Amino acid sequence: MDYSLLLLIFTSAVFEKTWCLNTTESTTSTPNYSISATFSSLYTTVTVPSLVCENKGILQDGICICPDDWTGTTCNIQNFCPEQKPSHTSKFTFPKTVLGQFASSVERCPPETTNAGMHQASALCNIATHSFDSPNILNCSLTLDAINAWVSGATPEQKQNLASSTQILTSIPERLTPHNITNAAKITNILLSDQQTTQTTDIAISAVATISQLLNASHEMYSSVDHTAISELTQTLQKLSLREKPNPLLVQPKMAVQSLKGQTPIRQVQLTSFKGLNDNFLPDRIKLHITEAEVSKHIVDLQMNVTFSEDFDKDIGFVLYDNDQFFQSKSFKPSLDTKRRVISANLQENSGIDQVQFAVTPSADSTMSLNDFACVFWSYDKQDWITDGCTKNKSPSGHVVCSCKKLKNANFAILMAFDINYQYSEALHWISITGCALSVVGLSVTALYQIITRKSRGGTPTLLVVNICLSMTVFYLLFIFGINNPVQHVNGTKMSGENIVPESDHHKYSDQGPCTAFTALLQFFLLLTFTWNTLYGINVFLLFKNSVSGTPPWFPQVAMAVGWGLPAVIVGISLGSTYRVEEPLGYRQEEFCWLASLDHKQKFNIKKPMFWGFVLPLLLMLISNTAILLHFSYKICRTNPNLNKSRKTSLTKKMMSSFSLAVMLGLSWVTGYILMITQEKNLKFILSVVFCLLNTTQGVQIFILFALRPFLNSNPAILTLCVRQK
């Protein structure tokens, strides 16, 4: 970041600015097999001729990545059911929907019903016919509580209706509360546990679609769900994957169930999920092979290879979850938007497992890099990830590799912690240093001049101007020597030898160096400057209001207390509520020493101290100062009819008086707030330049208006001599 324009850093901060493998094992006295599950390392390079992608497909490394509603080599094959309008066969309207997925009706339950606003019906987009099946209609008075109470004793026909009703009632993610999620998990668990009812394919499809919809709920909702119900559901799904025949309709956007029935003896199984623009599971994007298939790594979303040391002829089942909502850890608390898909690979109960090996390439974007990782498996007893029996390693090719031995009923995962790739600021440009230096000199001379000539104007104005100059001078010096963070964390894997579960997917460094101290001092002295600016404006207002008696005698004492006390209180609250030694970035930024303003998505967050510890109090001061300037300008611009022409003040002097007050009140910062709400690029650039130039020269402006100009006016002979020499 180039600081060629002073103070742009403060406004720019305001406006711009593990994969999881879940494997279930059951070890008995049968012969032992060795299973190796590998991601990423299976990818090979395949040369594909250049293509022209259709229907908004994107060409990546010679391969078309298609949206969900199109498929094929060039995204030219329709993969959806077109919109269906009401007709003699159905009174409902269904929008365009991807094949194999449920569409929700446009029609909603009436306001007077229990489920007011909920979709009245759903229909499955048939893969074979490319049209909608007969709709499932919801009783708008039916609730998940009622379904949960009835489902156990229902007949197969009733269960089919209850399954479709549950799917409709969970189709709106915003309506999924912890209670609703728990009820839906219990209902689907009962439906899928009954081997007789799951022979009715429609029940299994509706149940899997419901689970897929539950995974769409916000992460916060899962903190209060019944984790026992979720745990039982995941184990039921593992059994379902071994029981069900291969069915493409059991692939829904956020979860999929796949199976391979034991036939001829095999030595390996490869599961591949291919990429799409919308990051959903689709039937035609998930493939099972009994030999290692060569595919380009550019089109693979995830890949798992299970190999056996001996011939294996039993059933194998897979369950894919788009996220880890069902595996809520107490020790691992993610805070970044990193992908943690879960894969369950399941063998029949009479199959033994001796060892599981799996590897993955860190799946992070360019803004993050891997710091460390842990090899873990899920403990149903502790309801958390543990590392017992697992070791880790990092291959030269960049894969993270895990090995876990002699475990049964274990769900494996690689939990990764990432560093943010911070763009540290560059050293200050010489233009910025020159501007700051000139302002420091100008402010120092102004303060000295005000002290020397204080008898000519009284003590209160001198007190105010000197404090403004002092606070602004210190701020400029802190900006020059303290804005850059001297401690920079170099990106790159720093893998520890110990296999320990990380606290989060965001690796955080404890506070090091003086950056936090500089941030607090910068915040304090900048707030101090504006507080004294505001007190100067209040003093002007009181002088106009009490033109005879002048400023009240108590004002200097109150000004000293407020001027130095208010900024100290704001800084103290900011530090006390957001700063921790182990997590300093709650208070400050990493790239440079200034207040934190952005969340982990790099969006401005009003909960950060930049807003309520600087932007908000500064805004209130600027509003007050603007009102005082308008009042001052109105008062001095009014013409008094009782004054003769010789005693009237010229328009030039009136304008200069208003300009001088505007400079002292720091109103040039108003352009920064205008800049915050400006969207047009050219105007934004112009305002940025204006803002920076005005604030770069603020110290020089104060020197000219409050030291040089009064000095020349009080010594006209010097001004006359200068004019004659010209």
From TrEMBL:
Segments passing through the bilayer: 427-452, 464-483, 520-542, 554-575, 611-634, 655-679, 685-708
Sorted UniProt keywords: Membrane, Signal, Transmembrane, Transmembrane helix
Native species: Cyprinus carpio carpio
Domain of life of the organism encoding this protein: Eukaryota
Compartment(s) where it occurs, according to its Swiss-Prot or TrEMBL record: Membrane
Membrane topology classification: Multi-pass membrane protein
Cited InterPro entries: ADGR_G7, GAIN_dom_sf, GPCR_2-like_7TM, GPCR_2_secretin-like, GPR128_GAIN_subdom_A, GPR128_GAIN_subdom_B, GPR128_N, GPS
Protein known as: Adhesion G protein-coupled receptor G7
Highest classification ranks of the organism: Eukaryota, Metazoa, Chordata, Craniata, Vertebrata
Keyword Lyase included in the entry's annotation: no
G-protein coupled receptors family 2 profile domain sequence ranges: 428-710
A molecular function GO annotation: G protein-coupled receptor activity
Cellular component aspect of the GO annotation: membrane
GO terms of biological process kind: cell surface receptor signaling pathway
First and last residue of the signal peptide: 1-20
